[in-house]
Amino acid sequence: MLLSDSEKGSDQHEALSQILSAAYRQRDLVKQILAFSRKSEGKLSPVRIVPLLNETLSLLRASLPSTIQVQSHIDEGSYTVLGDPTQIQQIIMNLFRNAADSLEAHKGVIEVNLTNARIEPVRAHQDLKPGEYLKLTIQDSGRGITADIMDRIFEPFFTTKEVGKGLGMGLPVAHGIAKKLGGVIAVESVPGKGSIFTVFLPVLAEQPGELGPADDQRLACGEASPILLVDDEKIILSSMQRALERSGYAVVSVQSGREALDIFAENPQRFCLVITDLSMPGVDGRELVKRLIDIRPDIPVILSTGYGDSITEQEAKSLGIREMLMKPPNTHELKAAIHRVLQG
Ligand SMILES: Nc1ncnc2c1ncn2[C@@H]1O[C@H](COP(=O)(O)OP(=O)(O)OP(=O)(O)O)[C@@H](O)[C@H]1O
Ligand SMILES: [Mg+2]
Question: Which atom of ligand 1 lies at the shortest distance from residue 156's CA?
Answer without folding.
Answer: 18
